[in-house]
Design brief:
single chain, 293 residues, alpha/beta, Rossmann fold, two-stranded antiparallel sheet, globular, binds magnesium ion
Length: 293
């Protein structure tokens, strides 16, 4: 299964899209909330019911001990998003943006773990990598989780169909493609995810930005507000336009990534030291000291 990174030029629905894709997936799925500006799911969808004892910020210390320790810590910090079966899980994001600096050297090892989740544990993995910051035309080393993007099967720049969103996205296209070409798995890993609000349709966005729209999600305020702020599950949430389109989008992502993998220049790296991770992840991991609604 693919590892897909979602990014934006400026807040335009990345976290909502990542949640919708993770929850809509037909297969077990994982959302890694790796926005260096801080996570919003803990305080939003999960309504602060998972305490700060869980989350991405705890993984830096484990990584310094070794890759197997990181894998163990990763597995123990996942929380269920579906409340029951535990097939949809999340690694919750930073509680303070100041924690991002400590993760700079954790990203490559975390990327290995995410790829094991995708390859050996058969999860669809979505990464909320937040807004991109450039530094001299490159992804900023501390303010973006660049190694996650480099190694992703797919990097989706999320845009809305508005003039403003397309203008903001435009200046990222060249640097992002170049970065993926030079340091990543190739510029073909890059595509657009269109949030359908504003006058521009998918073919117009493709034309305006010279990059393919690989998937679309509708503007659907009710279900989106639930994913942003939590609360009572809206009636018909699973059948909402947002979730139905997210199901289709997740399939499109999978097909695209599979096609790419067939033509990839290099085979995906093996991670022998992480072979136990897939087994660990198959075990249910109850969230200690944290009630989930
Ligand atoms: N498809 C959608 N339909 C309707 N509203 C949406 C949709 N996607 C996002 N929103 C709304 O837009 C706002 C911003 O969404 P979200 O937090 O997902 O953006 P973001 O790109 O992650 O922002 P940030 O960069 O600040 O983390 C929220 O109020 C959310 O409910
Ligand atoms: Mg966000």
């Amino acid at each position: 299964m693919p590892v897909t990174c979602l990014v934006s030029a400026k807040s335009c629905g990345v976290t909502t899209a990542a949640l919708a894709l993770t929850l809509a997936c037909a297969r077990p799925s994982l959302l890694a909330e790796c926005d260096p500006a801080g996570g919003t799911i803990r305080a939003g969808l999960l309504r602060a019911q998972v305490n700060a004892g869980y989350g991405l910020h705890h993984l830096a210390a484990a990584e310094r001990v070794g890759p197997a320790e990181l894998a163990q810590a990763f597995a123990s910090h996942l929380v269920p998003l579906d409340g029951q079966a535990g097939h949809r899980r999340a690694l919750l994001g930073l509680t303070d943006p100041a924690q991002a600096a400590a993760l700079a050297r954790t990203w490559p090892a975390l990327s290995d773990v995410l790829h094991v989740m995708a390859q050996s544990a058969d999860h669809d993995v979505f990464v909320d990598a937040g807004r991109l910051t450039l530094d001299a035309g490159r992804l900023h080393a501390a303010l973006t989780p660049a190694p996650l993007l480099h190694r992703a099967d797919l990097v989706l720049l999320t845009v809305q169909g508005t003039e403003q969103s397309l203008t903001l996205a435009r200046h990222l296209l060249g640097p992002l493609r170049a970065e993926l070409e030079e340091r990543g798995t190739g510029a073909e890993a890059f595509g657009l995810l269109l949030i359908e609000t504003g006058p521009y349709r998918a073919h117009q966005v493709t034309e305006a930005l010279g990059s393919p729209v690989l998937a679309t999600l509708p503007w659907d305020p009710g279900p989106a507000a639930y994913l942003t702020a939590g609360g009572h599950l809206p009636r018909g949430f699973a059948r909402s336009r947002l979730l139905r389109h997210a199901r289709t989008a997740a399939e499109q992502v999978k097909v695209f990534a599979a096609r790419r993998q067939m033509h990839q220049r290099y085979p995906p790296p093996a991670h022998p030291h992480l072979t136990g991770l897939a087994d660990i992840l198959d075990r249910p991991a109850p969230v200690r000291g944290a009630a989930r609604g």
